[in-house]
Amino acid sequence: MQAMSGHFDVLVTVDQNLQYQQNLSARALAIIVLKARRSTYPMLKPLMPDLLERLETVKPGEVIVVS
Hints:
Blueprint: E1 10-13, H1 18-21, E2 30-34, H2 41-44, H3 48-57, E3 63-66
Parallel strand pairs: 1-2, 2-3
């Protein structure tokens, strides 16, 4: 996580436990978690419009769950 900070603005992940495993509060990186029953394309595709909208407004250090 620290290696990404400063190089990227947002991390998009399907790891729903990431926010509990890492100390994210001091990071200059925003995290968007995609929450679906499975991490397959058919399950994640409907989340894309909301993801694209959230990418425009997410702030560093913020964690957003898109489901």
